[in-house]
Design a protein that fits this description.
Layout (H helix, E strand, L loop, with lengths): L8 H15 L2 E2 H8 L3 H13 L3 E4 L2 E4 L10 H5 L3 H11 L8 E4 L3 H8 L8 E4 L2 H15 L11 E4 L3 E2 L5 E2 L1 H8 L5 E4 L3 E3 L3 E4 L2 H13 L3 E4 L11 E4 L6 E4 L5 H8 L4 E4 L6 E2 L1
Parallel strand pairs: 4-5, 4-9, 5-6, 9-12, 12-14, 14-15
Antiparallel strand pairs: 1-3, 2-3, 7-8, 10-11, 11-13, 15-16
């Protein structure tokens, strides 16, 4: 990581977080040498990452957060993590949506990023249990109707499921499950808390796990949108196996070993920022 003096703050913090996770902890003086920045810059970055819940500051450095499988970060905490990766994933996933199709977007910060890239896809029907995702479409439609933006052809029809709100602003529980049960989607885009070969797709929230199961059952095609840090993470409740997934869109930070494992289970892997896809 030489010659990183001019790295953007977000890129620098992503590198710090990768170091902490890979090595199990780092010291401030190590980071100043690797990143070629001042001691104060590193400490400010560590303060920011600690506030986001991404790591834990200790005397002289930082260590990973020891999260229980039931820990569920709030939307704001998650939205500050891996922002560039999520934006890359959203841009790569958007072409998988055909005009006029019926799609579902689960809750999550990556599906939230994806929603912004679908605003110009005409005649969509969007079903979501995410308050944040629904608001992306509603805000765009209000702006267009008041002359604040160019009128979009065939604006999306948005269905918000209803239900009990989680810390990540998803709506779950019997009301959401009943709404999803009677619907059928061309494609479902799933954000996940964790993904692994053994546990499949998992979440720390039991009610959200059941709602996600309903989403998976109602979709003809299931696409997971998840950055590389989700690989190997296991939440309290599994709601689908890798064999239930048709495609995964991730970022270039996913290690080669993980790609090989995924290739044994998924028909398609899309790595944002790399040319083409890996059809398996």
């Amino acid at each position: 990581m030489s010659d990183n003096q001019n790295l953007l703050a977000e890129q620098r913090r992503a590198l710090i977080l990768d170091e902490v996770r890979r090595r199990g902890g780092v010291r401030v003086n190590e980071l100043t040498r690797k990143l070629n920045v001042s001691d104060m810059t590193v400490r400010r970055d560590l303060d920011t990452l600690a506030r986001q819940g991404a790591l834990e500051k200790v005397h002289g450095g930082a260590v990973p957060v020891a999260e229980a499988s039931t820990h569920e970060p709030g939307f704001e905490a998650k939205s500050g993590l891996e922002q560039s990766a999520k934006e890359d994933i959203a841009r790569a996933a958007a072409p998988l949506v055909a005009p006029g199709s019926a799609i579902a977007l689960s809750g999550g910060t990556t599906t939230f990023a994806l929603a912004h890239h679908l605003l110009d896809v005409p005649d969509l029907t969007v079903v979501t249990n995410s308050v944040r995702v629904a608001d992306v479409f509603h805000t765009a439609q209000r702006a267009a109707s008041h002359g604040g933006a160019a009128q979009r052809p065939g604006p999306a029809t948005v269905v918000l499921t209803g239900g009990v709100r989680t810390p990540s602003d998803s709506l779950v529980g019997p009301v959401a499950d009943q709404a999803i049960r009677s619907l059928h989607f061309d494609v479902l885009f799933l954000g996940v808390h964790g993904i692994s070969v053994e546990a499949g797709l998992s979440t720390p929230n039991l009610a959200e796990a059941e709602t996600n199961r309903r989403f998976v059952r109602s979709a003809r095609r299931v696409v997971v949108v998840a950055d590389h840090t989700k690989w190997g993470t296991v939440g309290l409740s599994s709601f689908a196996s890798l064999d239930d997934v048709d495609a995964m869109v991730t970022d270039a930070g996913l290690p080669a070993a993980a790609r090989a494992e995924i290739s044994e289970h998924l028909p398609q892997l899309v790595v944002a920022g790399e040319s083409g896809t890996e059809d398996i």
